[in-house]
Queue: 3 jobs
Job 1
Amino acid sequence: MHIIFETPRLILRRFTEADASLVLFLNSQHEVLKYLHERPLINEADAATIIRTVILPQYQNNLGRWAIHVKGTNEFIGWCGLKYRPEIDENDLGYRLLPSAWGKGYATEAAKHTLEYGFNELQLAVITGRAHIENIASQKVLEKIGMQFIKEEVVDDGPVKMYIAVS
Ligand SMILES: CC(C)(COP(=O)(O)OP(=O)(O)OC[C@H]1O[C@@H](n2cnc3c(N)ncnc32)[C@H](O)[C@@H]1OP(=O)(O)O)[C@@H](O)C(=O)NCCC(=O)NCCS
């Protein structure tokens, strides 16, 4: 298992092609996709394709979306991580948790340590984050880890708030 880092309650590790059932479970839930411009996954083959073509290629330069497990139980609760977006030359902080894990501060804990990892280990200068204007929980996570609101913009036809953190 390729562990990226641990937080007080969580372990973040790289996904592998063996994680199709976990990715399917997460990305087939409508509550999870409510504010995201994505279609639900329909089967494990679909999830395996996403892992192979979207998630694994992001692991260049130690970036990427990392699976989150709860220490002790090893329960999978979602992902958090940094994605390089070449079209806008930004390192983007993102997270996605199973509804059963919401409301426990896990997203904030994972995002805070991801920001620190990006600045301290990867030596990134700037990290950005975006949340749909109605996605208050996600905006709160970005604000609680100290990111600054910059502007509203439209991405994929959806209005979002953009946040930034500078090392
Ligand atoms: C965004 C997400 C990760 C947040 O998870 P979470 O478990 O609620 O996060 P946390 O517990 O760390 O903190 C969320 C904060 O928002 C608050 N919050 C949650 N829902 C809220 C709502 N509808 N209105 C106002 N505040 C809300 C919580 O109270 C908490 O703040 P607090 O610690 O001051 O009480 C989760 O909702 C999720 O995975 N959503 C689906 C995927 C997604 O939208 N990802 C983000 C894309 S930009």
Job 2
Amino acid sequence: MILDGKKISDKRLEILNEEIMDSGLYPQLATIVVGDDPASHLYVKMKRQACERVGIGSVKIEMPVRTTTEALIEKITSINRDSVIDGILVQLPLPKQVDSRRVFSAIAPDKDVDGFHPCNLGRLFSGHPLFSPCTPLGIMILLAEYDLPVAGKDAVVIGRSMDVGRPCAALLLNADATVTTCHSATKNLENITSRADILVSAVGKAGFITPSMVRDGAIVIDVGINYVDGKLTGDVLFDSVKDKAAWITPVPGGVGPMTIAALMENTFKAARLRECTSVT
Ligand SMILES: NC(=O)c1ccc[n+]([C@@H]2O[C@H](COP(=O)([O-])OP(=O)(O)OC[C@H]3O[C@@H](n4cnc5c(N)ncnc54)[C@H](OP(=O)(O)O)[C@@H]3O)[C@@H](O)[C@H]2O)c1
């Protein structure tokens, strides 16, 4: 069975649009792109299109590829003070000379809709998230939309990045899964993954997950974005793994659209928080 991220994202965005209209608020998201990476500009374009669809204003800030950490922090500081902006998104990856940890620490935690500020990561890892990183949050929303229980399940996350692997493991743990995080130094990876009820691959290597790594009846979440001969593909050998898995996300149309839906929901949450209306 396919976990249709596109369908669920469309549904969530429609509901969000109604909620935003009913709220009388006009949330605004500032997106910052540093450099000319076409993929980054495309992702930001898709995020801004989603903003338009749900009734969130968006402001795109473009900075040159040679931007320094200090210049980027200065820009963020001015947006932090801008009372009409509710959320700030700095598109990854940043150029090598930019210290991304300092940059994410400069975003006001209450505008940190990507959830990368140490305060928000700390809240997430202590079990009390406010803004969770959008890709893992989108995965949790997708599982919930399909009524797939997480509590008590063995979950294996491959990847330990700050934006995907680590927060995904934390959200699964918060939802009472028993979580194992794997990375490039993990030994006997297949032994570990083939025990998983829920397997999340956030590696970034096409064809990395083969059927022998997957337990019969598992839920397989493919976060990977890879291009093979110009064609978008995930980490999972979809055609053969789908026969073993009970549930599987396609690429495209799985985790990607859910990431955008989660970003929109986080931005509306930030706007409501600033209005001091009730937020759960
Ligand atoms: N769909 C979406 O919305 C979305 C959002 C974000 C990212 N992505 C995609 O998701 C993928 C992962 O993104 P990321 O930012 O997390 O990438 P990343 O920072 O490069 O992390 C990749 C992780 O994979 C691990 N890894 C690499 N080779 C491995 C191996 N042979 N065995 C086990 N683990 C291995 C690395 O381990 P070490 O830590 O030991 O190096 C690292 O933790 C990429 O394809 C990215 O484009 C998709």
Job 3
Amino acid sequence: MQKTAITSAEIAPVLANRWSPRAYDVNHTASQHELLSILEAGRWAPSANNAQPWRFSIATRGSELFDQIVGAFTGFNQSWAPNASALLVISVLNQKADGTPYPGALLDAGLAAQNMMIQTEELGLAAHPIGGMVHDEMRKVLDLADNLDPIMAMTIGKRADASVLEGPAYEREVAPRVRLELDEIVLHGKP
Ligand SMILES: Cc1cc2nc3c(=O)[nH]c(=O)nc-3n(C[C@H](O)[C@H](O)[C@H](O)COP(=O)(O)O)c2cc1C
């Protein structure tokens, strides 16, 4: 299914065509090369002072870690995420080397996340970001050190027809993509 963004000026096709599916082909397997490519895209994201406060965990369908990560998702996400070919969890450093708070790490990690989602799309696959998780549970599953917090996951896989879904997941799959108008979000200087 195509859900190309309707824009008032052209944007890069990979941006216009990216969208977050919940219907995945359960017969697809992500190759090691595809997963490496996605991780490299995250690695090369920009970050303040080039501090790179992100850490990535990746698991493929069929592995114990994959099932454990699904188990740390909230209920709705557990209903559709298991069909993805791989799951990626992003954790961030929660303090700087000098022990002071590190709120900027979240912004940096968001840039890495978007890099990885765009790379996934470029590979002909599709990613879906997931914030709905039980953080303490995810922390245990990933055996994270105290200075790391899990903040976001994403599914990676091959799109399937919406008919593989049912209930709320199906409804959301076929719903049109919507955004605020530019007039609502550009405070100054809109052309
Ligand atoms: C940080 C973040 C967390 C999200 N968490 C969830 C989630 O837990 N479950 C879910 O189904 N979608 C989740 N989404 C997906 C959004 O609902 C989706 O990106 C948004 O509706 C726009 O749709 P699009 O990505 O198809 O353009 C999340 C997206 C982001 C960026």
